[in-house]
Amino acid sequence: MDSILHLIADPTAWAALATLVVMEVVLGIDNLIFISILTNRLPENQQTRARRIGIGLALILRLGLLGTVAWIVHLTEPVFEVFGKAISWRDMILIAGGLFLLWKATKEIHHSVDPNGGHEEKTGPQLGFAAAIGQILVLDLVFSIDSIITAVGMTEHVPIMVVAVITAVMLMLIAADPLSRFIAANPTVVMLALGFLIMIGMTLIAEGFGAHVPKGYIYTAMAFSAGVEGLNMLARRRRRKRVPSPEA
To answer: Which domain of life is it from (predicted)?
Structure first.
């Protein structure tokens, strides 16, 4: 209790908390985009529940991993070498997660381009509830481990990490439904978001092989692409307003 009161009175701790919350929110964007796209493939009456379960699993995983910080830190220790490059458990998890993200994003792009897969009888959602939760859990694990390792490098105080994780996940929970509705209502945004997931997958693989990619570059590219798409949406809306109705 004394240590917690000391942290509350320490301005440095508040600065670390603010930094960690921002970092957790930024890292959570990747996870939220994936959850939104995946759950939009489910029947409408299951989508909200799947999003809440997926985000709840992310919170449980991150809090659980915070309880094993000492073990998490050891995941960065080399296990074997490939062509002179030391590979750790964290590297293998990032590479596997990146490959999974590439596979899933590519599959979703194919579904968006050809929803029926060349067969007219295949209509409606092609994803089961359990399968969606399982895939969300896989990406939750990858992003959670990366998030916790990054947090450990920024502060040594576990209570600060816990508050930052809970705050970020609560913000994800608030943003999940509006983001999913926005993505579902704008097909071009779906393709853009899938492109983001491919870029994130490639980044995870590169990080796993030791090629550090500054996150600022990734999110700047995402923000620029989203800004361009926003201008396109505004232009389309204005063109529709100019087109006279058939009754006129």
So the answer is: Bacteria
Q: Using 50, 70 and 90 to split pLDDT, how confident is the model at 123?
A: very low
Over range 114-139, report the average pLDDT: 67
> Phi and psi dihedrals of 168, rounded to 5?
-65, -40
Residue 112 contacts by C-beta under 8 Å, 6 or more apart in sequence?
A: 187, 190, 191, 194
The whole domain housing 48 covers 1-116+124-241
Give a yes or no: residue 155 inside a domain.
Answer: yes
In a domain, 248, yes or no: no
Q: Which long-range contacts (CB under 8 A, 24 or more apart) does 123-129 make?
A: 125/41, 125/42, 125/43, 126/41, 127/38, 127/41, 127/42, 129/42, 129/46, 129/50
pLDDT in tens, 32-60: 888 888 888 888 888 888 888 888 888 88
Burial class (CB in 10 A: 0-12, 13-18, 19+), 202: middle
164 burial via Cβ count (<10 Å: 0-12, 13-18, 19+): buried
Q: Would you put residue 127 in left (φ > 0), alpha (ψ -120 to 50) or beta?
A: beta
Pairing of strands 85-88, 78-82: antiparallel
Q: What is the H or E stretch that residue 224 is in? A: helix 215-242
User: Coil, strand, or helix at residue 212?
Assistant: coil
Structure tokens at 230: 């926003």
Give backbone dihedrals phi and psi of 26, rounded to 5 degrees, phi first: -65, -45
Question: What is the residue-averaged pLDDT of the chain?
Answer: 77
At residue 61, does pLDDT exceed 50?
yes
**How many domains would you assign to the chain?**
1
Tokens of 98: 């990146």
Q: Is residue 168 part of a domain?
A: yes
In the chain, % of residues over pLDDT 90: 0
